[in-house]
Design goal:
Layout (H helix, E strand, L loop, with lengths): L1 H7 L1 H10 L15 H15 L5 H11 L5 H4 L4
Length: about 80
């Protein structure tokens, strides 16, 4: 899923979250403190780090990734 979110953007993620709201396989998207969610956000962040020269990447990073990282990881980005 991460590859699709990187390629298609946050609207794709929102669409999946809306469609899979009751699907246990996608529960990690909604449980912000779960290890699976933290891993998902970290993996998304690490992929986005590779292409920081693209403006959309900055938007995704600042508004859709960093707010969900635990403070210990977020502090390492600045």
């Amino acid at each position: 899923m991460i590859e699709f979110v990187v390629r298609e953007g946050p609207m794709f993620e929102a669409m999946i979250m809306n469609r899979e709201l009751n699907n246990p396989l996608y529960r990690f998207l909604f449980e912000n403190q779960s290890p699976a969610h933290v891993y998902y956000r970290w993996k998304l962040y690490s992929i986005l780090q590779v292409s920081m020269d693209q403006p959309i990447i900055w938007h995704l990073l600042l508004h859709h990734v960093l707010p969900f990282l635990p403070s210990s990881l977020a502090s390492m980005t600045g």
